[in-house]
Amino acid sequence: MLQVINILFSYEKTPVLKDISFSVEAGEHVSIIGESGSGKSTLLKLLYGELDANEGQLFWKNTEILGPKHNLVVGYDFMKYVSQEFDLMPFISVAENIGKHLSNFYPDEKQLRIKELLEVVELNDFAPTKVKLLSGGQKQRVALARAIAKEPEILLLDEPFSHIDNFKKQSLRRNLFNYLKERNIACIVASHDKEDVLSYSDKMIVLNNHKIEAINTPEHLFKQPKTPLIASFFGEFNVIDNTIVYAHQVQLVEKSNIKATVKKCYFKGTFFLIEAELNGDLILFKHHKEVEKNKKVCLIIEPQQS
Ligand SMILES: Nc1ncnc2c1ncn2[C@@H]1O[C@H](COP(=O)(O)OP(=O)(O)OP(=O)(O)O)[C@@H](O)[C@H]1O
To answer: 274 with 134, same domain?
Structure first.
């Protein structure tokens, strides 16, 4: 189990992280979300022992995680970290990079393991390709495979799919997170993308204003977003009478007392996002077809499903 106890950290004078406490069970998947600059990467670096906390302690089981002030070599065998930089060896092949830390003692087993990992990140066809010839997204997949090669007990991922195109992203997420769950590997993911979180995280940590604003399941935070920041992570929303109302809760109907005037329509694939004026404010709602500009419409607000 990972225990994060009252961490305080600053690069310079102003703290980047304050009063950070949470725990992660073996095999549990946790995501860290927050605006750009809220300290997600910094928190991962502290968890990895790449930075020294000013105050507080970190433990994985009974081992205290210590930063560079106390450790000559950063990192621990039970933990792997994939940063936004990847840190690969450009002049050797994809397969060699993935197998870099695997023992050469059983070469057949090593080759089988590399093949299995290539399948997880869907890079089988690139096994002999030199890493310097790969795209950013392909490099990111090599870094992910290399991080899980020796099956860490806990994996730290910083925006793990940020360079990967939408075609690949969906299947890669399923492959990777299912692989980690099957092997009971705990995982902490810093992400801006709700798709990384909703289906795969057991728990979500929201960072705001240097602190933890909320910790709960993605389902709970989605259904009961306490702040606009939390709601904005999940989608378009309105604040009506001090209540957060997602765009999907507002419905266009034949008759109602809520009357608005349509201002803009945005095509979103399976629906249109419509911006309308309601009592001098703008309101967003979803509708299955386009609605012409300046049309007067009637709306109802559905309660959020519990
Ligand atoms: N090496 C550094 N020295 C000084 N300040 C830093 C350093 N690295 C990050 N910071 C500052 O610390 C704060 C948190 O940065 P961090 O990279 O952890 O945020 P983040 O939430 O991961 O952002 P993003 O989502 O954009 O990756 C920011 O204000 C950033 O400018």
So the answer is: no
Asked which of 223, 252, 287 is the last residue of a domain, the reply is: 223
Cα 40 to ligand 1 centroid, rounded to whole Å: 8
Which protein residues touch ligand 1 with a CB less than 6 Å away?
Answer: 11, 16, 34, 36-42
Ligand 1 centroid, distance to 125 Cα (angstroms): 36
Domain count, the chain: 2
Cα 39 to averaged position of ligand 1 atoms, centre (Å): 6
Taking only the tens place, the pLDDT of each residue in 203-212 is: 999 999 999 9
The ipTM is 0.98
Low-confidence ranges of the chain (pLDDT < 50): none
Query: CA 140, 27, 84 angle in degrees (round to 5)?
Result: 20
Classified as helix, coil or strand, 296 is strand
Residues 201 and 256 in one domain: no
Model confidence pLDDT, tens digit, residues 239-262: 988 999 999 999 999 999 999 999
Domain that holds residue 17: 2-223
- Which CATH number goes with the domain that contains 276? 2.40.50.140
Looking from the CA of residue 84, the nearest atom of ligand 1 is 27
Q: Which two tokens stand for residue 73?
A: 């070599």
**CATH code, 72:** 3.40.50.300
- Ligand 1 atom with the smallest distance to the CA of 34 is 21
Pair type for strands 186-190 and 154-158? parallel
DSSP per residue over 168-200, as a string? HHHHHHHHHHHHHHHTT-EEEEE-S-HHHHTTT
